[in-house]
Amino acid sequence: MNSREEYIRHLICQFKDGMLPSLAREEPKAMACMIDAHIEAANTGKLPIEFSLGKLFVALWAWGNQSGIDLPTGTNHQKDFEEFCHQLMEPWPMDALERVGLEIRLIHKSSMKDSHRYEISRVP
């Protein structure tokens, strides 16, 4: 089995190269992953979408499973999430967002990282 760092890195690549372009096109697969993660704003099937990092991680994990990525089972969810945040946010993949015409912004900072609220939308 790959190390946590390796499978999360692969998941982040899927986010940048697969899920973000799909979100930008408002495709059903990406929206379904967001809905499965209880990101209510995705129910409209349109951008902008407001989300927490914790729910984005759940949506991306679902995306990875649907895309055939070999993700481990029975891992420590909290440690996976922490590694996900570390790799995703340091720094945010602004080039990948801009490439598909999206932007992301923090709309509410919380004392807990998984509760920060973000919005992903089209670049005006």
Low-confidence stretches: none
Strand order of the largest sheet: 1-3-2
Shape: globular
**Number of extended strands:** 3
- Summed up, the helix count is 5
Q: In percent terms, what proportion of residues is strand?
A: 5-15%
Radius of gyration: 14 Å
Query: For the report, how would you describe the main beta sheet?
Result: 3 strands, antiparallel
How far apart the termini lie comes to 43 Å
* Global structural class: alpha+beta
Whole-number count of domains: 1
Order of helices and strands: HHEHHHEE
Mean pLDDT across residues:
91
How helical, in percent, are the residues?
40-55%
Description:
This protein is α+β, with helices and mostly antiparallel strands and 124 residues long. The protein has one domain (4-122). The chain is built from 5 helices and 3 strands, in the order H-H-E-H-H-H-E-E. A 3-stranded antiparallel β-sheet has the order 1-3-2. A hairpin with an 8-residue loop joins strand 2 and strand 3 (117-122). Helix 1 crosses helix 4 and helix 2 (28-36) packs across helix 3. The longest helix is centred in the N-terminal third of the chain and has 21 residues, at 4-24. The radius of gyration is 14 Å and the shape is globular. It starts with a helix and ends with a strand. The mean pLDDT is 91.
